[in-house]
Amino acid sequence: MASTRRVPFRALSKAGRNTLRSRQYSSARVSDDCHIVIVGGGPAGLALASALGSSTVSDRLRVVLVEGGDLSKVHDWSMDSNAYSNRVSSLTNASHSFLRDIGAWSHVEESRTCPMEDMEVWDGVSDARISFHASDVPSTTGSPEGQQMARLTENLNLQRGLLRHLNTHPEIELIDKTKVESIIREEEGGQWPLVKLANNRTLRTRLLVGADGFNSPVRSYARIPSYGWSYNTQAIVATMFHPPPSLYQNTLHTTAYQRFLPTGPIAFLPLSPTASSLVWSINPPELAQTLVASVSQDPMVLASMINAAFRLPTVSLNYLYDVVMDARTKGVALDSEAITKEIRWREESHGIDVNSAYASSSTQLSQGMPSLDAASLPPIVTSIQPGTVASFPLKYNHAETYLGEGLGARTVLVGDAAHTVHPLAGQGLNQGLADVECLSRCIAEAVANGGDVGSYTALLPYAQERYIANHTIMSAVDKLHKLYSTEFEPVVWARSVGVEVLNELDIVKSAIMATAGAHSSKTTNNSVNNGWSVVAQGVESYASTVKAAKMASQGAIGLLGEGLQGIGRMITNSRK
Amino acid sequence: MQSILRNSIRRHATAATRQNSSVNASEISFFSKLSSQWWDEHGEFAFLHRMNPIRMQFIQEKLKEMTWEDGAGLEATSPRRSALDGLKVLDVGCGGGLLSESLARQGAHTLGIDASEANIAIATLHSQADPNFRASSPSPSPSNLSYRQISAESLLAESGPEQYDVVCSMEVLEHVDNPADFLNSCAQLVKPGGHLFLSTIARTPLAYFLTIFTAETLLRKVTPGTHTYSKFVNPGELVEYFQNYPTSLTSKTATSQPWITPSSSVSELRRIEAEVRGMIYDPIRAKWHLASRTASLRGGDLINGCNYLFWVRKPNVSPIH
Hints:
The structure holds two protein chains of two kinds. By secondary structure, chain A is α+β, with helices and mostly antiparallel strands. Among the domains of chain A are: 31-77 and 161-228 and 393-423 and 439-476, FAD/NAD(P)-binding domain (3-Layer(bba) Sandwich), CATH 3.50.50.60; 478-575. Chain A has 16 helices and 19 strands. In chain A, strands 5, 6, 12, 13, 14, 15, 16, 17 and 19 form a nine-stranded mixed beta sheet that branches. In chain A, strands 1, 2, 8, 9, 10, 11 and 18 form a seven-stranded mixed beta sheet that branches. The longest helix of chain A is centred in the last third of the chain and has 31 residues, at 525-555. By secondary structure, chain B is an alpha/beta fold. Helices cover 37% and strands 17% of the residues of chain B.
């Protein structure tokens, strides 16, 4: 029989009283009746266990988390102080304050996190640009988070912090290295879910929480359909090293950069003055796979391509992509020297001055006076941390409901099991944490009123609050993705005009700040949602503008039509 | 306005005490037919399921407030401990056990009674599936939730008065035949210094519109025939009843103190004697809200004009004044 036990680090727990109580718990129980079984030990599952552990409900509820993997690996994870793992999330201030409220943030190694104070976002085709500053948003001033839009945190640092926090709450039982074999419905009695574990143990539970990711077994058990699509896009992640900001720049590296390319957005997220995290979504996926594969031969290929992707006009980037895809079909290795030479030649032909920040040549690496446009671009990537390059496919997926009904009753979905979103706005993990915050609040309310935490009535407020919030964010992000991943001229035109108009409109800007999660505290959830609705509506009105522009340019009649065509030609010519 | 309670009090004065006098046979058979649906949270009783949290909130808040008022220490009023913990509680007209289960989960030694056999069967069956109430549950004490098919009158006759710290009867008063008799039985079962919690529907045009016309006739969310308008009871009638109670019934104990100071009206109730709180349904969020105390005091028919909660405390044997 496989061992079902607390993860070994529990022995280190300083809370002796609690350990004693929990020991009584596990030995005294003849049947494995639980109040809450959480399937999945990812960030959402661990955060829910943490939130319940720190709440008074853990006095009265038996909470068990089941994870197939080895949690002690996450608990014992450590990395050199100047190296970083590749999965990084921009925790919003709302997520940050939730983690602090439940007492988990103090277990996160804060020195490994980095505040995001500014954000530069621009269009790859038109170069229209928006700058966001944390100080633009009144709600950040005076908040405990200080002037930050978000805090960049390695997922492993967060998960380890949550596990360390759970050490102080041994009443929450963690069962790791144990897969869920099957989930069945009890035949008699209340038809409660029975979770059969690989170690032959069966947990009968009042509430089954699916924190079990995109292919959620809990979702299948609850017969909750989900809809979605694949973006035909791979995201590359990596940890990048670069020189620190010049002394003349009088700044720390706390700016995030994101360029919307027709192949997908590329993001440069600060982790320390000399390290940043990459999230580069690329369509077609083969291009991403080839770039990832090149790293084992010559890591500088990817570094040069990243530098180029933030700097070169799209026409030259397309040529570089062709070079990469050519090498793929021919089966030859990519050579960073050839790539660098090609980039340099392209910079020259675009008239990019060697001293400009737009030149990825070596002059930028010297510690001299930085160029005037230095702040608008990320630093030059000089190397990639070995072992950090990875890629994964992007999906959009949303469960039809978060609560099981009828035969699937007593189930609830959180995090990726409920929704998977394009990472361009960095919202996935934050949505999961917001789910957990709301669900733990509903559970606490039900317990306070003697309710049944597995009942539909107790969970309904969770579904009502989170479904709409998540749907709003997801459709806005999806629309942004579609809007920005086209080279179609009228769309680009409308987009560039739109973005520049956006820059003028403070209200829309602060709505987009919700992307970066500048709002803190639970009470502003609604304003975040409103922000996202504004984004969604804004995008919708772009779409109709685009449609009008498209019709006009295709019709090519009337003054307006000619005017648009003229603008279209201008853009086309200037790019060629 | 004619008070249905006052009329029945007068009738009571001449009527001999009958067993089960308040139980209406056709109401019992009506609810027996629906009993299988008690725990269907999407069905007939969805409104009651959603109302349950605010009933519990009101009961616990009021008990905590009174515990504090009685000068109890911090331990008794600790936020971690429910004010119901350890109390002996009777749930009259428990139906499928919606409220009884919640009371028992909060640590109350709960007895749920109902005149319908089918309801008691459903309530018992449901509680047995829940390890919280199973006798074999690992908790050291035996189950603190039990059910019996018995009327309040019969229970009183069997066990005698002054048995329970708390007597609750939620959404029952509007279904009984003789509300004054029913209230009398409930009130007698309360220990001195104990509490009586009721919830019912006011007899107002608003209540008719919402509970009968909208819920039953228009939307068919509730089986037509569930409610009878003439049986609805206004908060003022309950207040009046307890201003005259128990003096109106028993001339022998005429010296005993009325439960509510006679001069006060609904808006002047002393919070240590009685309280009326409106319950308002929000159809958008599918959620009941407990009106605030101030709104309930001042709002009159707007706030208390439909579903409302009523609390009254039985005076201690030795009056404070």
